[in-house]
Amino acid sequence: MQNEQEKKLSKLLEDNVIRSAGYGPICPYCGSVSVLCHSIVVYDDAKYPPVWICTNYPKCNTYVGCREDTYAPHGTLANEGLRKIRRKVHQAFDPFWKKKKMTRGAAYERLAKLMDLPTKQAHIGLFDMAQCKQAIEIINAGKFLDSGTT
């Protein structure tokens, strides 16, 4: 039985669907389909690009942001724990390219090499929990800058 908050969020989700189920990713946690919705559903603000949200939201609380121009997901659907650790990876990783120590592409290529991943799979939005922990360990251990050319 849904409580009042869950009912309110379910209604908000229903009222803000841009694309119905069948177009987006399947939720890796509950197996439900996802729908493309306005960001107000998860961020309480519509200024952000749309998000793919599990249709079992808010109970499942799984979503991923997307590109505004193509609606392509920025990664895989993630629950709160995975979203939190992905933010931590970004906090550790992003300064390497944002502070011009290297290009963003070069930073991801180096991360791919250090994690023994194909370059196309070395994006934080695609990482699972174990890969996030591995990336943080590599960066915090100083291995990131010690691994070759800049």
Topology:
Blueprint: H1 4-15, E1 17-19, E2 34-37, H2 40-43, E3 51-54, E4 63-65, H3 80-98, H4 104-115, H5 129-140
Antiparallel strand pairs: 1-2, 2-3, 3-4
Helix pairs in contact: 3-4, 3-5
Report on this structure:
- The chain has a four-stranded antiparallel beta sheet.
- By secondary structure, it is of the alpha+beta class.
- The protein contains five helices and four strands, in the order αββαββααα.
- It has helices spanning 4-15, 40-43, 80-98, 104-115, 129-140; strands at residues 17-19, 34-37, 51-54, 63-65.
- It is 39% helix and 9% strand.
- β3 and β4 form a beta hairpin.
- The protein has two domains: 4-65, no CATH class; 80-140.
The chain-level mean pLDDT equals 86
Q: Gyration radius, to the nearest Å?
A: 17 Å
The largest sheet has its strands arranged as: 1-2-3-4
Helix/strand-derived category reads alpha+beta
Give the biggest sheet: 4 strands, antiparallel
Number of domains: 2
Order of helices and strands: HEEHEEHHH
Terminal-residue CA separation = 55 Å
Overall geometry comes to elongated
Helix content: 25-40%
